[in-house]
Design a protein that fits this description.
This protein is of the alpha+beta class. The chain is built from seven helices and nine strands; from the N terminus they run αβαβαβββββββαααα.
């Protein structure tokens, strides 16, 4: 039996609470995933909230969030930790696309107001790049990525996407489809 999806308002409140705590930590971070897409005009996430930090800051951030009264837990995956906010899961990632996230990676952000909280949001190009590089033989859901590409297409550096996904045949297949659909310009 699957867990019910959290309510939209609960997701939004969790996003704000964790963002404020991350800001108070003084550690570089960014909103990523579905809510980064939403902050840039795409469809709203219905599953969870994702933030990204540098791997070198993971322990410091864990300790700060726990000291802020948030429920931090360690899942079996070794590339993130989770923060439970009133029954809503917030993922704090420190590796994306099987690569350790660095502070330099967190420079590709824009300060945006999200739900009345100013916060760094990963660039549209970086968000799409990570979504495409997550495609593999175990997870190849083009239907989840096409609406993101469509919504963010004018904000994305597609040449950077092509260069950053050159070794991923699943991403190449999706880019071909997006070109044929007229979502992205031909490469």
């Amino acid at each position: 039996m699957t867990e019910p999806e959290p309510e939209r308002n609960d997701l939004r409140e969790a996003l704000k609470r964790v963002a404020v705590a991350l800001k108070e930590s003084g550690v570089p971070f960014a909103l990523t995933g579905g809510y980064a897409v939403w902050a840039r005009g795409g469809p709203e996430s219905v599953h969870d909230v994702d933030f990204v930090i540098a791997e070198e800051d993971a322990q410091r951030v864990r300790e700060h969030l726990a000291a802020s009264g948030l429920d931090v837990r360690e899942p079996p995956e070794d590339w993130l930790f989770k923060v439970d906010v009133d029954g809503v899961c917030v993922d704090v990632l420190f590796r994306m696309s099987s690569q350790a996230t660095t502070r330099e990676d967190l420079a590709d952000v824009d300060g945006l107001e999200v739900l009345s909280v100013e916060m760094p949001v990963l660039s549209a190009t970086s968000v799409v790049l990570h979504k495409l590089n997550a495609l593999d033989e175990h997870y190849c859901d083009f239907a989840a990525v096409i609406p993101v590409a469509r919504a963010l297409r004018e904000q994305v550096d597609w040449e950077r996407i092509r260069a950053g996904t050159a070794d991923n045949i699943f991403a190449a297949a999706l880019l071909f489809l997006l070109e044929r659909l007229g979502v992205v310009p031909p490469g």
